[in-house]
Amino acid sequence: MSIRKRENGVYYLDVRTPGGKRIRQTTGTADKAEAQELHDKVKHELWRAAKFGERPSRTFDEAALRFLQESAGTADYANKALHIRHFREHFGGRKLDSLTRDEIFAALPTVNRRTREPRPVSKATKNLYLSTIRVMLNTALNDWEWVEHMPKLPAIPGNAKRIRWITREEAQRLLEAISADWMRDVAILGFATGLRQANLLGLEWSQVDLVKRRAWIHPDQAKARRPIGVPLNAEAVDVIRRQLGKHNTYVFTRKGKPIAKWDIGQWDRAVARAGIEHFRFHDVRHTWASWHVQSGTPLPRLMELGAWSKYENVLRYAHLAPDHLAPHADAVTIWAQDGSASAGRGTGGGEDVEAAGGIVARLPEPLLRSA
Q1: Which residue in 171, 248, 243, 255 sits closest to 200, CA to CA?
Q2: DSSP assignment string, 31-51
Q3: CA angle 306, 308, 312 (to 5 degrees)
Q4: Distance of alpha carbon 229 from alpha carbon 303, whole angstroms
Q5: Is 198 helix (H, G, I), strand (E, B) or coil?
Q6: 352 CB-near residues (< 8 Å, 6+ apart)
Q7: In terms of pLDDT, which residue wins out, 49 or 38?
Q8: Closest Cα to residue 235, out of 175, 325, 296?
Q9: Per residue in 70-105, pLDDT tens?
Q10: Residue range 111-118: average pLDDT?
C-alpha cells in the first residue's frame, strides 16, 4: 500500500523511485484524499526526475515539515519550531528555490509580542532566527539535494555587550525579595553551580549524589551534548536536601508538580524589589562564572565546571581578574621603584607624592604645570 495511516491519525507515504530507492515520509495530513494527492505528486516528480533529469520543485512548507521531523528530540526543538512557524507566515506555499536573501532578512521579527509589553527584538534574537532557517536551507541543499543553490545568510553583526553579573550583597537582596520558596531554591542552586535554567528545573533525584556531593547532567540534557559533572558546595547540598520527599522523580517542584515553565513575571518583580536592573535568570550563570574568576578559579577549570564547548566563551570573564598580569605592569613604570630616574626622564624639579602601594615618585615640572 502506498499510503498508510499511523496511530496518530496522519497518513504516511511509501514509494520507490524508478531506480529502486525507497522513500518514506509523512504527508502531514489526516485527510486520505489529500494524502493520496501528495503521493501522486511525489510519484510524478520522481518519474520526471528519472526520465528527464528534472529536479522536483519543493515548497517551503515541505522543507519546514521535514526539517522539524528530523529535529524532533533535540534540545532546541521548541525554538526551531517557533522560528519555522514565524517564517511560514511569510513563505508558506513559496517554492523553496525562490527565496532571496533580502526577503529572508526582511521577514525577521522586529517586535517580541510574547512579553507583557512588546519590545524590540535584539540582534542576538534575530541571529537565532537566521541560524534556524540557514540550517534548514543548507540541509535542503547539501543533504536532501532539493535545490541547486541557497542564498548566503550572514549573521547580523552586534555590539559587544558587558557581562551582566551582580555582587554577593545584591544576590542576597534578590534572594530575600523572592517570595516563592521554589523559585528562591532554584536561584540558590543556580548561583552555587552555574547550571542553566532547563537543567535546574529538569534535575532528577537519579542525577544527584548528596553523600559524595555531586550531580551530573546527561549528554542529551546538555547544550553542548556532552555530560557535565557538577560538584556541589555546602549551599547547593543544603538547598537540595530541602527538597527531599516533595517528589519521587524531580528535585524541584511547584505545588507538588514538576516545574514546566519559569515564571518570568514573578522573577522580574523580585528583581525590581531588590533594586536591581536588567537581570535575567541566565545572568545568574554569568554571576556564578564572574565570582569564580574573581576568586581565582583558572579559566580552564571554569570551562570544565561550566561545560562550555569553546574557550572563547570563558574568555569573556578573564578581564574580571587580571591579577596574573600585575607583574608585567611594572615593566613600564616611569621611574624605578627605588626612586632613581628611568631612561629618558627629564631633569626638572618637582614635588614628592606618595603613590598607591607606598612607592614614592617625583612628578616632572611639565606634568605639574599642566595639572
Answers
A1: 243
A2: -HHHHHHHHHHHHHHHHHHHH
A3: 120
A4: 12
A5: helix
A6: 360, 361, 362
A7: 38
A8: 175
A9: 998 887 888 999 999 999 999 988 899 999 999 999
A10: 68
Q: In this structure, what C-alpha cell is assigned to residue 171?
A: 544576590
The whole-number pLDDT of residue 49 equals 65
Q: Report pLDDT for 339.
A: 57
Task: Say what the pLDDT of residue 160 is.
Answer: 61
**Alpha-carbon Rg of the chain, whole angstroms?**
29
3-class secondary structure, 193: helix
Q: Where does the pLDDT of residue 361 fall: very low under 50, low under 70, confident under 90, or very high at 90 and above?
A: very low
With a cut of 70, say whether residue 337 has pLDDT above it: no
> Nearest to residue 43, comparing CAs of 69, 21, 65?
21
Report residue 93 as a C-alpha cell. 506555499
Residues with Cβ within 8 Å of residue 256, at least 6 apart in sequence: 246, 247
The helix/strand count (H/E) of the chain reads as: 15, 12
Active site amino acids? 196, 223, 282, 285, 308, 317
Q: How far apart are CA 24 and CA 2, in angstroms?
A: 9
The grid coordinates listed for 206 are: 537519579
CA 274 to chain centre: 26
Question: Which residues lie closer than 8 Å to 160 by C-beta, 6 or more apart?
Answer: none
Q: Is the pLDDT of residue 21 over 80?
A: no
User: What is the arithmetic mean of pLDDT over 17-43?
Assistant: 77
Q: How far apart are CA 30 and CA 8, in angstroms?
A: 9
For the chain, how far is it from start to end, CA to CA, in angstroms? 92
| Dihedral angle over CA of 275, 281, 282, 284, nearest 10 | 60
Quote the CA–CA distance of 96 and 56 in Å, as a whole number. Answer: 11
**Neighbouring C-alpha atoms within 13 Å toward the C-beta of 82:** 14
To the nearest whole number, what is the mean pLDDT of the chain? 83
CA distance 39 to 270: 55
**Cell numbers found for residue 362:** 617625583
Model's pTM, two decimal places? 0.57
